[in-house]
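ok so for the tutorial part 2 we go from a plain amino acid sequence to predicted structure tokens. step 1 is just haveing the sequence, like this:
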Amino acid sequence: MDLKALESKLRECLGSKIPVYAVVAVIGSTEHGAVDPLHGILAARKRLEKDGLSFVIHADAAWGGYFASMLVERPTREELFADSSNVPALSLSAHTETQLLAFKNADSITIDPHKCVCVLPPLSWK
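step 2 — the prediction. this is what the tokens look like for a chain of 126 residues:
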């Protein structure tokens, strides 16, 4: 996803008074494992809210959600060998890890490849 193009389109909607309900970030597409910039979408919403536009952000993490469960703090070499129960951390790109850690700020997240949606508590409307 091109964040500049997304924010430009959202600003067009704001200027034309076209309501925006949601932006969906795909975190681990089925075909290619692509990861949209959820962290950047959240930052864009914060900027746009100052100008009067807010929207729900949904993270379609049908596949990426499983990887999020494997994120662990990487132990030091000494800690790794001191405890035989340590499992090596999942090797993800910094981009992907940043997006997975941003899940906590999404309004809803799909975490099952069968596309069930878990909806977080209602947003507070101003």
